[in-house]
Amino acid sequence: MKEDSADSGALSDHTASRKILIPSDSPPILAQRENTSAAMTANPNGKTLWQQLLPVVACGAGLFSDGYINNVIGSVVTVLAIQYGDIWANSTAKTCLGAIAFVGTVVGQLLFGTGTYYKGDAVGMFNVLTVWRFFVGIGIGGEYPAGSVAAAEQSGELKKGTRNMWFIWFTNSMIDWGFVIGAFVPWLVAAAAHNTNYETIWRTSLGIGVVFPLSLFVLRFFIKEPEEFQKHSMKYARTPYKLVFQLYGWRLFIVSFIWFLYDFSAYSFSIYSSTILANIFDSTSAPLTTVFGWNTVINLFYIPGTMIGAPVSDWLGPRKALAVGVLLQGVVGFIMAGCYPSLAQPGLVGAFAVVFGVFQSLGELGPGNNIGVLAAKTCATGVRGQYYGVAAAIGKLGAFVGTYVFPFIVKAGGESKTLSAQYPFYVSSAGCVLSAALCWFGVPEVGQDTIQDEDVRFKAFLEANGYDTAQLGLRKDGSVLVEEPK
């Protein structure tokens, strides 16, 4: 394969001074790949499509709650700003409430001061909300390396030519549907409350978020570990971190940086889209249902990007799909920034929603769909959980940085509402162009059998450098699990 030969050469040059042995694609390895691919294509277990899909659904669909929880806070912030006015505007929670969930894995990084409690019960409530958002972030952070990695490994048992599509539909597409429902529910609640009972609107919108993660809780207990994990797990083996870093360090850096840039933009815009719309409308007269309604329309544009873009990842490959999608997103972003003075008028809010929606949709077709595929499939099964977890964590760091600094980017526009709205698009679009370049030149091709290929390549690399690969695999009765003859 092209990616293997290219990687082997790059690694040989990089590690020559350390005398690290990098195995080439010898005939036995190629034969093993062919046998593995044939076995996977033949579906030897005789499972129906639903039986093959169920583990992918169970593992990936929990990410729906991530999309809902992270997006609904944008509408909540809009309501709080209207309900509490200057108290909200002067509180520390204004800056960190939307972002704090992204720092859930970093204990102690709460960005509010207890000294503000003297201002009244409202500010104390803002701080309590911020604390609980932090703990919500811990749960979301645990979902990524567990659910997504398992879904990626389970997708290897599906039919060739569709594996990336199914993985995307039940991971990133779930997040995007969560975004949509996270925008729609506040609209629905606001309509039921006749745009007046602000307390009911934001509390109900937040509370509904508990339903989604609980719905899949029981189902997860009945899912078995995928075959690749059983054969190549390092659960009972010593992880050779030095060798892992030498083989995958550069890939991990590139994938993580692309994920950082994507989340920096995607989560920031999803959270602040309702605020952007509120600035277009006269916030003193436009009802919440109008603002939240258009916010729902904008979020709906995620769906064609992710749903239609999923099979594109199988046709073009994740690397090319990501690079092309994010480059086109950057182009649209620059156009939108330049045309913003004409688009940002109440009479043209429909045009604004469409252009902004296309911007969001291209982001999903590109990095939204494919960064998870690349993070899950550019390394071996034995280290996939840690590799993916690091990449996802750095991505969430980008989300935190973006949602935290976006208000400052907006503020840099001064008194000009036009400049304040243009600057985020300029920053985001520049990041899109950088992501496209990093992906095109720094990420290997990912094919239908890359998971199996990487396991073969990783095992050969470890053996060439003196590591005992007999330790790999899950154990039963004290012995290493060996694949049974079919």
UniProtKB/TrEMBL annotation:
It is a multi-pass membrane protein. The chain crosses the membrane at residues 166-189, 201-223, 243-262, 291-310, 322-343, 349-366, 387-410, 422-443. GO terms for cellular component: plasma membrane. Coiled coil: none annotated. The keyword Phosphoprotein does not apply. Residues 1-447 form the Major facilitator superfamily (MFS) profile domain. Keywords: Membrane, Transmembrane, Transmembrane helix. GO terms for molecular function: carboxylic acid transmembrane transporter activity. PROSITE patterns: MFS (PS50850). It holds the Pfam family Sugar_tr. It is found in: Membrane. The keyword Membrane applies. This is Transporter.
